[in-house]
Amino acid sequence: DAMRHEEVDRLRTAITALPEHYREIVELAHVEGLSHREIAARLAISETNSRVLLSRALARLATLGARPRQA
Fold first, then answer.
1. What pLDDT is recorded for position 71?
2. DSSP letters along 23-69, please?
3. What is the pLDDT of residue 67?
4. What is the pTM of this model?
5. CA dist 2 to 5, 10, 45, 58, 71, Å?
6. Are 60 and 22 in contact (CB under 8 A)?
7. Angle at the Cα of 12 from the Cα atoms of 37 and 6, rounded to 5 degrees
8. How confident is the model over 13-66, as pLDDT tens digits?
9. CA dist 36 to 6, 21, 59, 62, Å?
10. Sorting pLDDT into bands at 50, 70 and 90, what band is 70?
11. Most buried of 13, 14, 51, 69 (most Cβ within 10 A)?
12. Which H or E run includes 16?
């Protein structure tokens, strides 16, 4: 429906406005559906760092008026 389409467009625009490291973690978690363990392995970071980066990225998205739905 039209509202859903607007929401998806707003989310895509907001994600492209994120710094690369935030954009990457959002895509890994919410597009590819990876766990923090999988993200940590792929990015060579700790699981804790994965959680922190995703939390910060989602907070930034919220300030931009968009946030992915929880899976």
1. 46
2. HHHHIIIIIS---HHHHHHHHT--HHHHHHHHHHHHHHHHHTT--PP
3. 64
4. 0.80
5. 5, 12, 39, 24, 21
6. yes
7. 130
8. 888 989 999 999 999 998 899 999 999 999 999 999 999 999 999 999 888 877
9. 29, 15, 17, 21
10. low
11. 14
12. helix 2-17
Q: Cα 35 from chain centroid?
A: 12
- The closest of 37, 58, 62 to 49, measured between CA atoms, is 37
- What interhelical angle do 47-63 and 36-43 show, nearest 10? 100
71: its two tokens: 């899976």
Contacts 24+ apart (CB under 8 A), 21-28: 21/53, 22/53, 22/56, 22/57, 22/60, 23/57, 25/50, 25/53, 25/54, 25/57, 26/54, 26/57, 26/58, 26/61, 26/68
